Amino acid sequence: PEIDLDKLRGWKDKVVGKLTTGLSGMAKMRKVEVVRGVGRFAGSRVVEVTGVDGKKIELVKADDACEPKQAPTVANKVVNDGIKYVVGHLCSGATKPAAAIYDENDIVMVTPAATNDAITAEGLKMVFRTIGKDSQQGPTAGRFIASHVKPKALAILHDKQSYGQGIAEQVRATVEAAGIRPVMFEGLNKGDTDFSALITKLKQANVDAIYYGGYHPELGLLLRQAAEQGLKAKWMGPEGVGNKDLNAIAGDAVEGLYVTLPQDFSSEPANAALVQAFKDKKQDPTGPFVLTSY
After folding, report:
1. What is the per-residue pLDDT across 48-65, written as a single tens digit (0 to 9) for each?
2. Model pTM?
């Protein structure tokens, strides 16, 4: 949708870029990427020297912990503080309830990370995203499973959250269209740490491939416990599992994991000057959400 710029006038003395994202737990690494991208914009020469409408940008951070129940509290505080621009939220489950609040109050929200399709499919005129959608990533994973993994018995697991379950459903639809019917499609509870019963069930189903929709804490434990219990299968997950903290949790069991990740915008020739600007500040321009945040 187009932005009505008149709605963005009458800002406070400072044009404030509000970053609302989970600052801890599973999203910690991705938060760092978002902060780096927004910080580079806020510190750019154009913004520092000329500002926006003659006003300087102040970066304010907030924490929704990637929790849908906490996101409305964060969003309402943004409204009450008179902030008119949001970079966030990070997790789809937290983004959805916050987006409605921003739209109702004429606050521009751009998420650099939330991929659930519904976020930008509900007619909210002030809500945007700079990242791909589950309906792009899920089918990509599904086609890879069908054409390269070629499982005899596929299980699809998810964490029952907007992001994890949404992308798992896209994978299921894609593999079924390719003639592969998963032997399991099952959700687990975010925050669970003991997956012994689930792994036993996977072994009984003789699965040789497993797709997991969700984030790295649960997948790391699944990988490690599956290896300990002798489950041999090929694993795959979305960008929510693709960070170095997964290695610390899963150990050697992470070897061979397939992961889909967003396009590397830092490798695009058109972004060469921007990438160099990051490097000049001794900052890493890579990571799936750095340039989408910028």
Report:
1. 545 566 667 777 888 888
2. 0.80
